[in-house]
Model the fold of this input.
Amino acid sequence: MTTQAERFLADLERKPEALASLADALSDGNPWAGLPDGVRRVLFLGMGSSRYAARVAALRLRARGVDAVAEYASADASFPAGPETLVVPISATGGSRETLDAAGRYAGNAPLVALVNTVDSPLASLADRIVPMLAGVEESGVACRTFQHTLVQLRALEAHLTGEPADLPGLCLRAADATADLLERRSSWLDQALTLLDGPHGVWTIAPAERISSAEQAALMVREGPRRAADACETGDWAHVDVYLTKTRDYRALLFPGSRYDAQAMEWVRERGSTVLSVGADVAGAAGSVRYRGDDDPDVRVLTEVLVAEVLAATWWLAQ
Done:
């Protein structure tokens, strides 16, 4: 009988295949077609990985003129219900208690479209319609492929609402190629990553606001699998809230670069002698970097880069 850690690694190894299948599905049509006219705002509801992905989607929508927010499903209140508010509860299992409670407050009072992986779930039954994640069954019970597919399906919603052209099948295939590259070459980067990030005080993850989901999901994977201390921070905010830890901790961070404030953070890292592993680019002052095919494309990055942390988490978990 396989362990949960073994099933988690197997779930990760199926990412390229699942992305290719998602590309085929997106080639067949727009999953968000048929939304009601007159939508003025979008309310995403979710917890954990679902909310992480939604934060990035909401920021992208706001930058394109669409009023959007990613709310904790556990919040007591958010936008009032109404026909102009599209409510998108997100839950891979479709059974998250907080998301069900929040969606229930909007059912029948606002357009309710659930983004789920389990299509016969309680959340799917509550919604007016569903958009399936199409990530397949995650045998480990850890949200990894569903996180990746949530990001893609929310990009599809963005394209639908803004009318901006987006080759989402092509993006899925590029991300599948990048993911396969990291998996196939893990023997060339994994040992160094394990050495650099295996410290007594945990792992800290850093990413720009536009890809904060990568830092949050990376930290969650380290906590959820091997049960190691890990937490996430936005790159610019790091100099205001996390820099203090470099003075009192054996600070070891996984950096997802691309922020205009990378250099500011790295200046403190060099001064304090902290350890940083960069993913997707070579960064001055970092102790090492993990590169992969297509890492110069921000859209590929946001779908792929967290795999480094996921493989690290799986390896630590398997060793327990």
Strands lie at 41-46, 67-72, 85-91, 113-116, 129-132, 203-207, 230-234, 252-255, 275-279, 288-290. The CA atoms of residues 23 and 169 lie 4 Å apart.
